[in-house]
Sequence to fold (481 residues):
Amino acid sequence: MSFLDVLRKLDEFTWEIPREAQPGMRVPGIVYADRALLEKADADNALQQVANVACLPGIVKASLAMPDIHWGYGFPIGGVAAMDAEEGVVSPGGVGYDISCGVRLIKTSLSYREAKGRLEEALDLLEAGVPKGLGTKGRLRMERKEMERLMARGARELIARGIGWDEDLEAMEEGGCYPGADPSRVSEKAYARGRDQVGTLGAGNHFLEIQVVDEVYELADRLGLFPDQVVIMVHSGSRGMGHQICTDYIQVMASSLARYGYDLPDRQLVCAPVNSREGEDYLAAMACAANFAMCNREAITHWIREGFERAFRAGARSLGMEVLYDVSHNLAKLEEHEVGGEKRALLVHRKGATRAFPAGRPEVAERYSPTGQPVIIPGDMGSHSYVLVGTEEALKKSFGSTCHGAGRQLSRKAAKRKVRGDELRRRLEGMGIMVRAGHPAGLAEEAPEAYKDVREVVEICEGAGLSRRVARMRPVAVMKG
Fold:
């Protein structure tokens, strides 16, 4: 079935999948996109997934999709769904396998003009200092008790050990420690998979980029961003630990599905009541993975600072290497939102979507009260990335959510058929982008052609009122696993 035939255009950037489009839909689907992006989403069955999510018990207002939507496990990537905290469900497919996969932006006080001559040395030092690639072991080795403290306390645990700065915590969601974490809800297999992976980049679409700010908009100066500024972007998540937690709880919820009498349009949407034993256990384990992911990015930041100190013969503080923000795009969060004129407690699933809260929300750190929460949006390795901020309108429309990146349009297999890794490397280097990658095939999987146009995605989000631009960056060096 093509959903293009039943879509209703609500405005230039907003489309509705009506409830009558599919039996069992409890709410409509809302997709923020233009016609071209809708056609791509329909072709890979992502619009079908939007409709499927609308069938979940306790879903509130609408099943939402951002313009970077594409097919995912159960939920589409780019999907947002808010569930009533008392009567709704939690679904691991609404978070994804890479729990708390997210992006961090580290500022410097360097201009590209003054730094250009030492950036290749910096990149070499980062490649030597930040472990990358599938199955890579990190520089930190942790025993079980150490892992438990890390999962319970988040980035505060690493910083107490001298890895990271105290002020980094204010630049992370939840102050660097996701609430409700209970390490006893994490399986031995998940512990084993995560034990050696703190401070590792991983493979696939995870990356480290040295970038240059090439456009600034309103509020850029408030966030300490200026033209020609060198910044570093990190994209990584909870590695094997998060994947195992998701795997474990999909199995748990699949076995308990009949007990709750849920009739789902897709088995990948397995779920449990938020306040059930299965739901509470999953959320407690998910919080552990979120804390692991923040620690992972914090350790990587530590190695990045060390590399820049050696390359530029100066201390990281004197180089202005502050974290602008660290934000996840794969989480389910308990939040309060106004729906139909009343405040309600909701569990907001964001999978390949980013929280984008405006100034005034209690969750937004004091340092961002003049601007709203920063949102870090990576493009592909041959195009721009962006810093955005959240808006009041996003609270009303999308539970304070916006896009998370460009969004894939070619599968990894299709990208490898279309692009040769060695040719891509030469092309990127011809564009002035230095490349460090583990294997040509892995590089080809993440070719620019594999992704949508991030500029278009960001402009649709801005046009729909979900976020607004603060700065644009271009890559000058890329490191991938």
Summary: The CA atoms of residues 394 and 400 lie 5 Å apart. The longest strand covers residues 467-480. The chain has a mean pLDDT of 95. Residues 3-96+333-368 form one domain.
